[in-house]
Structures are given as structure tokens and as C-alpha cells.
Amino acid sequence: MGKAKRASERRDEGLSLERIVEVAIELLDAEGEDGLTFRALATRLATGSGAIYWHVANKSELLVAASNAIVAREMKALGTRAAPRKAIRNIAVSLYEGIDAHPWVGAQLFRAPSETAMLQIFERIGREIQAMGVSRRAQFTSVSALVSYIIGVSVQNAANGRQHDPRMSRAEFLKTIAARWEALDPDEYPFTRKVAAQMREHNDRAEFLAGVDLILNGIALGC
Amino acid sequence: MGKAKRASERRDEGLSLERIVEVAIELLDAEGEDGLTFRALATRLATGSGAIYWHVANKSELLVAASNAIVAREMKALGTRAAPRKAIRNIAVSLYEGIDAHPWVGAQLFRAPSETAMLQIFERIGREIQAMGVSRRAQFTSVSALVSYIIGVSVQNAANGRQHDPRMSRAEFLKTIAARWEALDPDEYPFTRKVAAQMREHNDRAEFLAGVDLILNGIALGC
DNA sequence: ACCTGAACACCGTTCAAGT
DNA sequence: ACCTGAACACCGTTCAAGT
């Protein structure tokens, strides 16, 4: 052993999959999904666009690798010691914030659900559900529901963030939506009109966690 | 009144937004998201690609219109009379199956969450939550969680369906995945290995509905 | 007012040619 | 084994010209 795997560390010369993925992530974060082109990538890597194809089969594979890298990073950063419910909330928040910071990960997770990424999340939540004492036969359903909810809301939140003009503040944005809700047809949208005020004041992250708790309560009922 | 709005009915001549959207949906259903190009659309409509731009601003707007049309159709087809919990399950199943039959709707709902589509779903579920007697202050959170879960899982399910080779049966597919789960590293994936058998036998639609019930149970606890 | 279709700018991907 | 970069096929979108 000893210096056996030095090669994987610093290599300023030549391309490598890691280097390509790293620069792809930079591009995606800086300019969004449309910013990632093989031409832009090649320029930043000071090479020809064809060279990238030596290390990666196509763009879709590159996106999978990039989003796997983010999910793995987020999961690794998690502390390991917390009570089960608290631990699940931590995992949920990490993913929510990770996807919020890298919205393209969300899109990717949905376009081509990556098994490796999903498995990591599934496993972490599964262990906590087990620790909560959920019955053997309810475990699969409980974990599936939680994972789906957490990923689903995180991705929707990230997609929503890209929707509105970034010069508008969050408060202004909510105000605009709430005003639109209040102006809806009273016969067609009675309920939505009634909760418009709550829409104006709600906090997305808090609602997300409230939803996680709702599911956890439902799960706890079963055991 | 009387024959005042006849013009909106049959017009075999000339283009119209409705006609364009209709053909776009046919194309999307038949050949998937990549099949929708302005050139293919123009050919099917027997016109030039530029003509379409007279009726629709760009491709993104066309996708929004097409997916709104599907959601509206699905919501309209719903019966109106059922007990609240049953009604919510009906809405959930309609969306799940609608998105399963038109996977591109799912992708679209996430790429650019359409306010009109979301509002329709939010309103329908909201009325039922109100009918369940959920307290005023818990209503917004309850409906948000349900809508997020229902849309999220439906979209993920549709995306998963496009993943694997269509020649493989569902049972074969699950068997393959379960085998892969069982072969995972015992130290890194103890939980996932343990539930691999349940993965092999689970039914996606049933798990989806079980998740809805979990949330409904959590909601009912609060009131 | 509405349609036509060539033209433009820009992609992902391939591949013969190089080192 | 790995890199280069021109070439190919294919997009969305625009726009001068038509009716």
C-alpha cells in the first residue's frame, strides 16, 4: 500500500472524468442547464469537444455523474448521530437545500432517476425508520413515501425558484401570487381564495418540514 | 346569443391554437418529448414551421398549453360526489394515471410548474380537506403536502417508466432491481438489502395510495 | 391578418487525422 | 491511449416575401 494510489490525486495534465464532472458542475451552477454545452466545456478545459467523449459516453451520462456527485456530497456531509425523527429531518433539509443550491440536480433526478443517488437516500432514511421501531411490513411503504415526498418537494421548490424574475424579492413574489389567488372566480376557486392570506405568509422550507412531520405522524400511528 | 359563438367549433381551414395543441399532444404521446419539433408539427399541420409562431410564442409556451390541456381534461373527468377521503384518493389516482399515460406532462409540470394546472389540483383537494373538518390553520399545510406528494410521485413514476427497456415486463424489471439490491454491500446498505424482497413484490400504484393514506392519517391526527 | 420556407445561430455527436 | 477540430445532422427561431 503506502503510495499505491497516488495517481488519483493531483494530475494537472490530461483530462479525467473527475475533472470533467467538476467543471461541468461549475458551468451548471453558474449558467444553468443551458450553459452546459460540449463546446463551453471544451473551452474551459482547454481541449477539443471530441476529447470529452473519450471519458464520457454522452451528455446524459455527464449529467447523471454530476448530479450523483452532488447527492453523494450532501449525504456525506450529514452528521450520523441524532434521534431517528431528527435524523430524518436533517436528511430532508440537506436534500432540500442541496437541490435549491443546484436546481439542475432536481431536473436531472426526475428526468433520469439515478439509482445510486436514490439508493443512498433510501438507505439513510430506511435505517432511521427501522430505529423508530416501525413494523417490518410497514417499513418499505414508509420509506418510499418519505423519499418520494422529500425528493418531489425539493425538486418542485427548485423549479419554482427558476420561475420568477430574480429581481423580485420573495415577499413581493408571494404578495403577487396571493393577490392573484384573491382575484380568482369565487364560484370556481372558493377554497383557494380563502387560503390566499396563508399563501402570502407561508415559508416554503417550513411547509416542507411540516409535510415531513405529517408523514412521520401517519407512520407512527401504524406502529 | 343562440348561434353567437359558432366560430369556435368546426373550422377545417386555417390554423388555430387548439388545433396546434391537439396535434402537439398527438406527437408527444406517439413519439415522446423529442418527437415534438416545429418541423414535424408543421408537416402534420400541412403548413410552414413559421406559421406556428403566429399562434404560439415559442416551444415552451406550447408545452405549457399541452400539459394544461391534459390536466384540465383529467380534472373535468372526475366525479364530484364522494366522501372526502375517497374523493382525494380519486383525484390522486386520476393524476397518477393521467401522467403515466402522458409522461411528458410530468416533465413539463416540473420544468415549469404551471399555475393554472396546480391551482386546479390545489382547489379540488382543498375542498375535500375542508370537508374533512381540518382546522382552518392546518388547511394550507395539509393541502400543500398532499398536492406535492401526489404530483411528485406521479412524475417520478412516469420518469421511471421511461427508464427501462420496454421489452422487459414489470415483473422481470422488479426482479432485476431486487437482485441488484440483494447484491449490495452489507455494510453500506444493510437496510436496502433487508427490504429487497418487498421491492420485488410491491405495486407502484398501491404504494402511492398507501403514501396518500399515510399523509391523510397524519392530517386527521391534527384535528 | 395570416402563411411560407429559406436562412441563421447553435446544438450533440462522429470521426479521420494527429501525437 | 488519448486528443484535435472540422464536419454532419438536426434544432428553435426569425423574417422578408407572399396572399
How would you sum up the global shape of chain A?
flat
Give the oligomeric state of the chains in this entry, treating copies of one chain as homo and distinct chains as hetero: homodimer
Largest interface: A-B, 54 and 54 residues
Low-confidence stretches of chain A: 1-11
Going by CATH, what is the homologous superfamily of the largest domain in chain A?
A: Tetracycline Repressor, domain 2
Number of strands of chain A: 0
Termini separation of chain A comes to 49 Å
Order of helices and strands of chain A: HHHHHHHHHHHH
Secondary-structure-derived class of chain A: mainly alpha
CATH class of the largest domain in chain A: Mainly Alpha
CATH topology of the largest domain in chain A: Tetracycline Repressor, domain 2
CATH architecture of the largest domain in chain A: Orthogonal Bundle
Summarize the main sheet of chain A: none
Strand content of chain A: under 5%
Approximate helicity band of chain A: over 70%
What number of domains of chain A? 2
Count the DSSP helices of chain A: 12
Radius of gyration over C-alpha positions of chain A, nearest whole angstrom:
21 Å
Word description of this protein:
2 copies of one chain form a homodimer. Chain A is mainly α and 223 residues long. The first copy, chain A, folds into 2 domains: 11-56, Orthogonal Bundle (Arc Repressor Mutant, subunit A); 71-222, Tetracycline Repressor, domain 2, CATH 1.10.357.10. Chain A has 12 helices and no strands. The first copy, chain A, has helices spanning 17-31, 38-44, 49-55, 59-76, 84-101, 103-111, 115-131, 136-163, 170-182, 190-194, 196-201, 204-221. The longest helix of chain A has 28 residues, at 136-163. The model of chain A is unreliable at 1-11 (pLDDT under 50). At the A-B interface, helix 6, helix 7, helix 8, helix 10 and helix 12 of A face helix 6, helix 7, helix 8, helix 10 and helix 12 of B. Chain A binds a DNA duplex (19 and 19 nucleotides) through helix 2 and helix 3.
